[in-house]
Amino acid sequence: MKNSIIIIFITSMFFSLLGTTRLQAQDFNPKKNNYLILSKNLQQLKPVLLTANELAKEDSEEYGAFYVIICGKTVSGIPDNSDFNALLEDAKAQNVKVFVCAISLNKFNINPDQIPELLEITENGILYGFQLTKKGFITLTI
User: Short name of one Pfam family for this protein (predicted)?
Assistant: First the structure.
């Protein structure tokens, strides 16, 4: 029991250092239209990228950041997924930042080393989503 508590604590601290520190440094302009999609479906990334492209055209100079947070069981489909990796390349080209939830990775036994480098890890995807919403991001969950 004591060992389990220690392991959980160390794992939490590791993800805390890995995720939160890195994400606090994210740059976005709070005076522009910033968008966040919280998704539980990898296949939604393609229509999300189409949407980001249309919003960039529509908003023009008012277009800011576009973030996608992936969480839930769908993280199981990330390792070795060439179609998803191609979409991540498209996201990078469009300056769309894609994050994955460390809690979901942990729950579904996905080692962070198994995810593509183009994905950023956030310790708690739902919490990060709320934090971005408080900072003025327009948010949608799909």
Answer: DsrE
DSSP alpha helices (H): ranges in the chain? 2-15, 21-24, 45-59, 82-93, 102-107, 125-134
Which CA distances in Å does 8 have to 2, 12, 25, 66, 76? 10, 6, 26, 32, 21
Q: How many CB atoms lie within 10 A of CB 26?
A: 15
pLDDT (tens digit, 9 = 90+) per residue, 22-42? 444 356 777 899 999 999 999
Domains and CATH numbers, the chain: 2-141 (3.40.1260.10)
Residue 106 and residue 70 in contact, taking contact as beta carbons nearer than 8 Å: no
CB–CB of 102/121 below 8 Å? yes
Could you tell me the two tokens for 113? 């080393």
